Amino acid sequence: MARMKTIFTQDVFTEQVVTAHAVKVPVTPSLNTNIMGFLPVHCIHQLLKSRAFTKHKVPIKDWIYKQLCETVPPLHPVLPPLVEAYVNSIIVPSTKGRNDTTNEPISEAEIMVIFERSIFASHLSTCNGGKASQSLLEKSKAMSKQSDIVTSMTAQLLLLYYLLLYEDVRLANMRSIVAANRSVKRYSQNIMASLPVKYLLQEAQKEQHHYAGLLSPLLRLLVTHYPHLCLVEDWLYGNVYVVDKS
Q1: DSSP 187
Q2: pTM to 2 decimal places
Q3: Which of 118, 136, 167, 184 is 20 to 30 Å apart from 173, CA to CA?
Protein backbone atom coordinates (compact mmCIF):
# COMPACT_ATOMS: atom_id res chain seq x y z
CA MET A 1 0.00 0.00 0.00
CA ALA A 2 2.83 2.39 0.85
CA ARG A 3 4.42 1.58 -2.49
CA MET A 4 1.19 2.41 -4.34
CA LYS A 5 0.93 5.72 -2.48
CA THR A 6 4.49 6.61 -3.47
CA ILE A 7 3.82 5.79 -7.12
CA PHE A 8 0.68 7.93 -7.24
CA THR A 9 2.17 10.95 -5.45
CA GLN A 10 5.60 10.92 -7.09
CA ASP A 11 4.98 9.46 -10.55
CA VAL A 12 1.29 9.80 -11.49
CA PHE A 13 -0.02 12.82 -9.57
CA THR A 14 3.15 14.79 -9.00
CA GLU A 15 3.07 18.24 -7.42
CA GLN A 16 3.60 19.77 -10.84
CA VAL A 17 0.63 17.88 -12.32
CA VAL A 18 -1.64 18.79 -9.40
CA THR A 19 -0.58 22.45 -9.54
CA ALA A 20 -1.17 22.72 -13.29
CA HIS A 21 -4.61 21.10 -12.92
CA ALA A 22 -5.65 23.13 -9.85
CA VAL A 23 -5.86 26.43 -11.74
CA LYS A 24 -8.18 24.82 -14.31
CA VAL A 25 -10.74 23.80 -11.68
CA PRO A 26 -13.65 26.29 -11.60
CA VAL A 27 -14.01 28.49 -8.53
CA THR A 28 -16.88 27.84 -6.12
CA PRO A 29 -19.85 30.10 -6.96
CA SER A 30 -21.17 32.22 -4.06
CA LEU A 31 -18.61 30.78 -1.66
CA ASN A 32 -19.68 31.12 1.97
CA THR A 33 -19.28 29.28 5.27
CA ASN A 34 -22.45 27.25 4.73
CA ILE A 35 -20.80 25.35 1.86
CA MET A 36 -19.33 22.28 3.51
CA GLY A 37 -16.62 19.80 2.55
CA PHE A 38 -13.24 20.01 0.84
CA LEU A 39 -13.43 22.69 -1.84
CA PRO A 40 -11.07 23.82 -4.63
CA VAL A 41 -10.14 26.84 -2.51
CA HIS A 42 -8.72 24.50 0.16
CA CYS A 43 -6.44 22.87 -2.39
CA ILE A 44 -5.31 26.25 -3.76
CA HIS A 45 -4.60 27.47 -0.23
CA GLN A 46 -2.38 24.47 0.54
CA LEU A 47 -0.51 24.79 -2.77
CA LEU A 48 0.01 28.51 -2.12
CA LYS A 49 1.47 27.82 1.31
CA SER A 50 3.88 25.27 -0.14
CA ARG A 51 4.83 27.74 -2.92
CA ALA A 52 3.94 25.16 -5.58
CA PHE A 53 2.65 27.76 -8.05
CA THR A 54 5.85 29.78 -8.09
CA LYS A 55 7.99 26.65 -8.00
CA HIS A 56 6.36 25.31 -11.16
CA LYS A 57 5.70 28.78 -12.69
CA VAL A 58 1.92 28.34 -12.78
CA PRO A 59 0.04 31.72 -12.72
CA ILE A 60 -2.52 31.75 -9.91
CA LYS A 61 -3.59 35.40 -9.73
CA ASP A 62 -6.62 35.10 -12.01
CA TRP A 63 -8.02 32.11 -10.11
CA ILE A 64 -7.70 33.82 -6.75
CA TYR A 65 -9.23 37.03 -8.09
CA LYS A 66 -12.23 35.14 -9.50
CA GLN A 67 -12.77 33.27 -6.24
CA LEU A 68 -12.59 36.44 -4.16
CA CYS A 69 -15.19 37.95 -6.46
CA GLU A 70 -17.40 34.88 -6.00
CA THR A 71 -17.87 35.30 -2.24
CA VAL A 72 -20.96 36.12 -0.23
CA PRO A 73 -21.72 36.35 3.50
CA PRO A 74 -21.29 34.63 5.87
CA LEU A 75 -17.55 34.64 5.20
CA HIS A 76 -15.93 31.25 4.59
CA PRO A 77 -13.11 30.81 7.16
CA VAL A 78 -10.51 29.78 4.54
CA LEU A 79 -10.65 33.14 2.74
CA PRO A 80 -8.57 35.36 5.11
CA PRO A 81 -5.75 32.73 5.27
CA LEU A 82 -5.97 32.42 1.47
CA VAL A 83 -5.40 36.16 1.09
CA GLU A 84 -2.53 36.04 3.58
CA ALA A 85 -0.80 33.15 1.79
CA TYR A 86 -1.28 34.88 -1.56
CA VAL A 87 0.12 38.23 -0.37
CA ASN A 88 3.18 36.56 1.12
CA SER A 89 3.75 34.63 -2.11
CA ILE A 90 3.77 37.94 -4.02
CA ILE A 91 6.25 39.79 -1.82
CA VAL A 92 8.43 37.18 -0.13
CA PRO A 93 10.36 35.04 -2.63
CA SER A 94 10.42 31.29 -2.03
CA THR A 95 14.07 31.29 -3.17
CA LYS A 96 16.24 34.01 -1.69
CA GLY A 97 17.03 36.84 -4.06
CA ARG A 98 15.05 35.58 -7.05
CA ASN A 99 12.10 37.57 -8.46
CA ASP A 100 10.80 34.64 -10.49
CA THR A 101 9.73 32.87 -7.30
CA THR A 102 6.89 35.27 -6.53
CA ASN A 103 3.30 35.44 -7.79
CA GLU A 104 1.70 38.24 -9.78
CA PRO A 105 -0.28 40.83 -7.77
CA ILE A 106 -3.86 41.89 -8.53
CA SER A 107 -3.91 45.07 -10.63
CA GLU A 108 -5.42 48.33 -9.42
CA ALA A 109 -7.93 48.27 -12.28
CA GLU A 110 -9.07 44.78 -11.28
CA ILE A 111 -9.61 45.96 -7.71
CA MET A 112 -11.59 48.98 -8.84
CA VAL A 113 -13.88 46.79 -10.97
CA ILE A 114 -15.18 45.21 -7.76
CA PHE A 115 -16.22 48.62 -6.48
CA GLU A 116 -17.40 49.84 -9.89
CA ARG A 117 -20.17 47.22 -9.73
CA SER A 118 -21.39 48.25 -6.29
CA ILE A 119 -23.95 50.56 -4.75
CA PHE A 120 -21.30 53.28 -4.30
CA ALA A 121 -19.95 53.15 -7.85
CA SER A 122 -21.21 56.64 -8.62
CA HIS A 123 -19.26 58.01 -5.64
CA LEU A 124 -15.88 56.51 -6.49
CA SER A 125 -14.59 59.59 -8.27
CA THR A 126 -15.43 61.87 -5.34
CA CYS A 127 -14.98 59.54 -2.39
CA ASN A 128 -12.52 60.59 0.35
CA GLY A 129 -11.90 64.02 -1.07
CA GLY A 130 -12.06 63.31 -4.80
CA LYS A 131 -8.50 61.96 -5.01
CA ALA A 132 -9.27 59.06 -7.31
CA SER A 133 -7.15 58.73 -10.42
CA GLN A 134 -9.28 59.41 -13.49
CA SER A 135 -7.24 57.02 -15.63
CA LEU A 136 -7.66 54.30 -13.00
CA LEU A 137 -11.42 54.81 -12.96
CA GLU A 138 -11.57 54.73 -16.74
CA LYS A 139 -9.61 51.45 -16.82
CA SER A 140 -11.89 49.87 -14.23
CA LYS A 141 -15.01 51.00 -16.11
CA ALA A 142 -13.68 49.49 -19.32
CA MET A 143 -12.95 46.21 -17.54
CA SER A 144 -16.36 46.31 -15.85
CA LYS A 145 -18.12 46.50 -19.22
CA GLN A 146 -16.25 43.39 -20.36
CA SER A 147 -17.04 41.46 -17.19
CA ASP A 148 -20.17 39.79 -15.85
CA ILE A 149 -18.95 39.98 -12.25
CA VAL A 150 -21.62 40.88 -9.70
CA THR A 151 -19.86 41.64 -6.45
CA SER A 152 -20.91 41.46 -2.82
CA MET A 153 -19.65 43.45 0.15
CA THR A 154 -17.73 40.31 1.16
CA ALA A 155 -15.60 40.57 -1.99
CA GLN A 156 -15.03 44.26 -1.36
CA LEU A 157 -13.93 43.67 2.24
CA LEU A 158 -11.59 40.89 1.14
CA LEU A 159 -9.96 43.11 -1.48
CA LEU A 160 -9.65 45.92 1.06
CA TYR A 161 -7.95 43.40 3.36
CA TYR A 162 -5.70 42.35 0.48
CA LEU A 163 -4.60 45.95 -0.14
CA LEU A 164 -3.90 46.68 3.52
CA LEU A 165 -2.09 43.41 4.14
CA TYR A 166 -0.04 43.84 0.97
CA GLU A 167 1.21 47.22 2.20
CA ASP A 168 1.89 45.79 5.67
CA VAL A 169 3.94 42.85 4.33
CA ARG A 170 5.73 45.07 1.80
CA LEU A 171 6.86 47.50 4.49
CA ALA A 172 7.87 44.68 6.83
CA ASN A 173 10.13 43.23 4.12
CA MET A 174 11.48 46.52 2.81
CA ARG A 175 15.03 45.93 4.09
CA SER A 176 15.41 42.60 2.29
CA ILE A 177 13.71 44.00 -0.84
CA VAL A 178 16.21 46.86 -1.02
CA ALA A 179 19.17 44.62 -0.17
CA ALA A 180 18.27 42.23 -2.99
CA ASN A 181 17.55 45.14 -5.37
CA ARG A 182 14.15 43.66 -6.11
CA SER A 183 11.31 45.48 -7.82
CA VAL A 184 8.06 45.05 -5.89
CA LYS A 185 4.77 46.60 -6.94
CA ARG A 186 3.58 49.51 -4.83
CA TYR A 187 -0.09 50.43 -4.98
CA SER A 188 -0.79 54.12 -5.48
CA GLN A 189 -2.35 56.23 -2.73
CA ASN A 190 -5.12 57.05 -5.20
CA ILE A 191 -6.63 53.61 -4.90
CA MET A 192 -7.12 53.81 -1.12
CA ALA A 193 -8.41 57.37 -1.48
CA SER A 194 -10.97 56.06 -3.99
CA LEU A 195 -12.51 53.38 -1.80
CA PRO A 196 -15.46 53.88 0.61
CA VAL A 197 -13.47 52.47 3.52
CA LYS A 198 -15.50 54.01 6.36
CA TYR A 199 -18.76 52.92 4.80
CA LEU A 200 -17.52 49.35 4.37
CA LEU A 201 -16.34 49.15 7.97
CA GLN A 202 -19.59 50.56 9.35
CA GLU A 203 -21.61 48.06 7.33
CA ALA A 204 -19.34 45.19 8.37
CA GLN A 205 -19.69 46.15 12.03
CA LYS A 206 -23.47 45.95 11.72
CA GLU A 207 -23.08 42.35 10.51
CA GLN A 208 -20.08 41.28 12.60
CA HIS A 209 -21.31 37.68 12.83
CA HIS A 210 -20.96 37.42 9.03
CA TYR A 211 -17.30 38.49 9.00
CA ALA A 212 -15.68 36.57 11.85
CA GLY A 213 -11.98 36.16 11.24
CA LEU A 214 -11.73 39.20 8.96
CA LEU A 215 -12.95 42.26 10.84
CA SER A 216 -10.30 42.20 13.61
CA PRO A 217 -7.22 41.92 11.35
CA LEU A 218 -8.79 44.46 8.99
CA LEU A 219 -9.19 46.99 11.80
CA ARG A 220 -5.66 46.29 13.08
CA LEU A 221 -4.19 47.06 9.67
CA LEU A 222 -6.28 50.20 9.29
CA VAL A 223 -5.24 51.51 12.69
CA THR A 224 -1.59 50.82 11.81
CA HIS A 225 -1.48 52.34 8.32
CA TYR A 226 -4.53 54.63 8.07
CA PRO A 227 -5.33 55.79 11.64
CA HIS A 228 -7.24 58.81 10.31
CA LEU A 229 -9.89 56.39 9.03
CA CYS A 230 -10.44 54.99 12.54
CA LEU A 231 -11.54 58.09 14.43
CA VAL A 232 -13.29 57.48 17.75
CA GLU A 233 -16.48 59.30 16.73
CA ASP A 234 -16.89 56.99 13.74
CA TRP A 235 -16.87 53.88 15.94
CA LEU A 236 -19.18 55.54 18.49
CA TYR A 237 -21.63 56.30 15.69
CA GLY A 238 -21.39 52.72 14.42
CA ASN A 239 -21.93 51.26 17.90
CA VAL A 240 -24.95 53.49 18.53
CA TYR A 241 -26.44 52.30 15.26
CA VAL A 242 -25.98 48.66 16.21
CA VAL A 243 -27.52 49.20 19.66
CA ASP A 244 -30.50 51.08 18.20
CA LYS A 245 -31.03 48.39 15.57
CA SER A 246 -31.01 45.63 18.15
Answers
A1: -
A2: 0.81
A3: 136
